[in-house]
Amino acid sequence: MAIFEHTTLAPLVETIDRIDPQSHEWGFAVVKRNYLRAMTNEAFQLAIRPILQGVAEAHVAYNNDQTIYIAWNGKQKLIYKLIRNLASTSLLRPGLNVDGNILVTYFDPAQRKDEIKEIIASEEAATTVQSDEEDPGDFDDEDEEDEEEAAQGPAALRVLPEQIESFQETSAQKPYRRQLCILVVEDQIFAQKLLLEILRGVRVRNNNESPIIDTVQSVREAWKIFLKKAPDIVFIDLNLVDGSGHMLARAIKELDPQSQVIIVTANNFEEELHVARQNNVDGFITKPYNKKQILDSINRYIEATKPVKGSRRGSSG
Amino acid sequence: VEAPVNLDNLRIIADGDRQVEAMLLDAFLEATNACLNKMQQAFAAGDEAQWRQQAHAFKGACLNLGADPLSNLCNRAQIDWRAAYDEKKAMLQSIEAEFARVKEALDHITKTGPKA
Question: ipTM exceeding 0.90?
Fold first, then answer.
């Protein structure tokens, strides 16, 4: 498995050229980035990497600020679905009417090789000529707002070296904390209150203390609290006001693989589960919230972190 | 006809505390009224992304409450987010009607208390 990321289109064209016309292993998608909230290459890379992890070879080329080309070898349909889902569900600008606009276009490179090459060539030329043109359509004079949105979305998951240092210090204290630290990331008031009611019933066995629970509604707030408090367990809803819970989950597991991340969602879709698995999350709970499932996920964490000197934690609901 | 709500799961979570149950029901109504308003606005504005997002949020709240028939209608609205105007209008009307049934049931439960 290899993911190649390019800032020019030539390597992508070379890849398309070497695809055997008899082979139907490759997929190719054009993602119109104008319609995505993720405005930086870095943010998009973070989102697309887990999706492409399961394929034999993948190329992601960033031509400009508008279009991203993705070619991949293996799992044609599934990967296309995941890319489309990422674009339309997780990264779409809020309030944007996408009627008539194609977010992600799929091509079979074996059959439409020449067409793909023509598209790449014409987009490349158009970029040079139209680089000063405004965005089309619904959001042509909202640049400042867009930048702010981008800052609040996936780009908000950036972490500074000094933050990592401070996080590691806090994280090292986890086994010695008297209370379990839980972060709930959920933007709907009803779901939030239900989950809090379940979590309030949790008691840590040795000292019978209830957990410390932080509740936030956005990716940005969650990341801030995570870096500051290094919670033991994080419950994450997938559809958040400023981005995807998948991205947050991935960022958390990358920074601290020991953190227990539980996805809670009303979307019982195979694609969501696949991305969650790729992100190495520890649990995937579909709504309705089930008290036992939530308590079991906490107990699993406590069991996994048990062999610590002088501190045996366990919970009861 | 399937009952509009089944509060068994909610009651397990509330652990027999009537105040907690009432607080959760208020939260449900607050969240879902907002979802319905936003869906109505999205329909009027032809805003498909907003329609889909609110249908999803509405569905989640209904699943958590135990309002399964309403959650099924919201799920359909979420899946068919690009449906034609007339189809969406019909979906919205069904959701409004079922939501009224849910509210009526909750009102009745609040006044009479849970069945033994």
Answer: yes
